[in-house]
Amino acid sequence: MPQIVCENLSLGYGGEVVVSGLSFSVSAGMYLCIVGENGAGKTTLMKTILGLRSPLKGSIVFGDGLRQREIGYLSQQTEVQRDFPASVREIVLSGCQGRMGFRPFYRTEEKELAARNMERMGIAELAERCYRDLSGGQQQRVLLARALCATQKLLLLDEPTAGLDPEVTADMYRVIHDLHQSGVTILMITHDVTEALPYATHILHLGGRVFWGTRNEYMREEEERR
Fold first, then answer.
1. Which of 39, 184, 196, 210 is the most buried (most CB within 10 A)?
2. What is the rounded distance in angstroms from the CA atom of residue 194 to the CA atom of residue 30?
């Protein structure tokens, strides 16, 4: 069974419908890029998958052993979040909170998980640094390590390269590709289709037209449109 099945979804906010009749599924090992115009409902879709919004219509069903609280999420950062005065270790560890319930302290296994994910993201030497003193690329690696503490199955990434320079953007795409190659399912919102397309297995386009299919199908359709 797929990890996520979205059936006949209608999404919106403030009384306005931004997506209707949307159906697609996400299987383990997929690298799905979600693209489309501003205001097309991309972030609203992610928040609905996470349970932060309710669908106006339709359903989202989780399968293949995936539970909603096991999804790792990297949201778009605000200026306030970029200036957060906590250490890298503290931020990465906070990704374990979903598995702690009401327990007020971190166990050894959670500290070890955070250490492994910092090592995995190449930021172990930054563990005691203040998050707000890091570069944009380093901050995104910290947030990826945090998201990996919540899941080893599926990551939702909302514009993970926004505000990064071209060299750091290319590096971030390589990091995400390596995570996908290790078995993590990726759902990524991106405005940069050209950079993201080589890594994607599937594309979901929202907006004036809706497309759902493989990368090759998307490329053929784009060629025909041109």
1. 196
2. 18
Q: How confident is the model at residue 13 (pLDDT cuts 50, 70, 90)?
A: confident
Which residues are CB-neighbours of 175 under 8 A, at least 6 positions away? Answer: 121, 141, 144
Nearest CA to 57 out of 112, 99, 104, 19 is that of 19
Give the burial class of 15: count Cβ atoms within 10 A of its Cβ; 0-12 exposed, 13-18 middle, 19 or more buried.
exposed
- Contact between 146 and 96 (Cβ < 8 Å): no
Q: Are 45 and 73 in contact (CB under 8 A)?
A: no
What domains are defined for the chain? Answer: 1-66+153-226 (3.40.50.300), 78-151 (no CATH)
DSSP at 151: -
For residue 91, give the 3-state DSSP assignment.
helix
Q: Which two tokens stand for residue 106?
A: 């971190």
Q: How confident is the model at residue 99 (pLDDT cuts 50, 70, 90)?
A: low
pTM of the model: 0.89
Model confidence at 32, in pLDDT bands (50, 70, 90)?
very high
Helix and strand numbers (H, E) in the chain are 8, 9
What are the structure tokens assigned to 202, written together? 């599937």
Q: How confident is the model at residue 127, as a pLDDT?
A: 95
Helix (H) or strand (E) holding 79: helix 79-82
